[in-house]
Amino acid sequence: MSNEDGVYSVPGKEFDRDTRYITTRITADGSEGFPVEAGRYRLIAARACPWANRSIIVRRLLGLEDAISIGLPGPTHDKDSWTFDLDPGGVDPVLGIPRLKDAFLARDPEYARGITVPAIVDTTTGAVVTNDFAQMTLDLSTEWREHHRPGAPDLYPEALREEMDAVMRRVYTEVNNGVYRCGFAGSQETYDSAYDRLWTALDWLEERLAGQRYLVGDTITEADVRLFTTLVRFDAVYHGHFKCNRSKLTEMPVLWAYARDLFQTPGFGDTVDFDQIKAHYYVVHRDINPSGIVPQGPDLAGWFSDHGRESLGGRPFGDGTPPA
User: Cross-referenced SUPFAM superfamilies, in alphabetical order (predicted)?
Assistant: First the structure.
């Protein structure tokens, strides 16, 4: 961390996420100048970040580890950039840079927006191709098919896309971003509104998942990946740090069982690092947690307890197989 920390909560203001991403896509036909090519691209994805955690999970479920390398920034950063402080010498071993910002500036020397993860970098130029996290994972499922492992699941099945898109839109606006809207609220009024929206959506999910094992269809899809990365952080950071404290995840029977089911599924829990998650939120958000003290809890043993969701049927990987 530098001495210059970011500011996340603006007094009197509702949190408004900047969604002006670099939307260039890597496609099978290379229509936007970046064709799918094994070994060419590097995914930069901090384990601390829920948006980046999605891409790590999808890459692992689809077996794209050999096709797309991964760089892992540390959990803490200043307002300037994510940094590669976990790597020897504080430099990414493939890109040769200490800050992710360097790859954004290689794409656009005048780039003035947020330096976000996940980002995919073209190793031939050292420049970011995209940081559009929502489209990125869908493209890993659809455009990168020739490089999927045998038995990879279909995370974005065509027959379910209309329903998936609607569910994922609500999960994003009300839950994924909803916790941030609570945590970064700049007034009591904006917090109260955000809190009500969040719990309306979580109650909806608790009811929806009471009778079905997965969010859409009877197998794991991208919709489950997107909800999971928020749920797995809920008790560790969102309940206390972001004041999303009507209930803990462990006090919501259906969502708690659903989250444990996914956590114990290969490709999900094995991508999660609770120490990095807590360090990121409690250390980086100094305007919310000025002391920078990271709590020791909660107890994580419950994540490995029986969930009983098998009784609802469903097949995690459909006709496919789990990742090794």
Answer: GST C-terminal domain-like, Thioredoxin-like
Selecting among 41, 156, 180, 281, the annotated active-site residue is: 180
Catalytic annotation, pick one of 41, 49, 238, 258: 49
Is 49 in the active site? Answer: yes
User: What tokens does 249 get?
Assistant: 């995840």
pLDDT on residue 1: 36
How many Å apart are CA 210 and CA 253, to the nearest integer? 9
Given a contact cutoff of 8 angstroms between Cβ atoms, the answer to whether 137 and 267 are in contact is no
Q: How many Å apart are CA 99 and CA 104, to the nearest integer? A: 10
Res 18 pLDDT > 90: no
Q: Is 121 helix (H, G, I), strand (E, B) or coil?
A: strand
Alpha helices, DSSP H, located in 120-242: 133-142, 161-170, 178-183, 188-208, 222-233
In terms of pTM, does the model score above 0.90?
A: yes
| 75 to 50, 68, 85, 240: CA distances (angstroms) | 12, 21, 9, 19
Each residue of 153-188: pLDDT tens digit? Answer: 999 999 999 999 999 999 999 999 999 999 999 999
φ/ψ of 147, rounded to 5, equals: -110, 5
Whether CATH 3.30.390.10 fits 158-312: no
180 tagged catalytic: yes
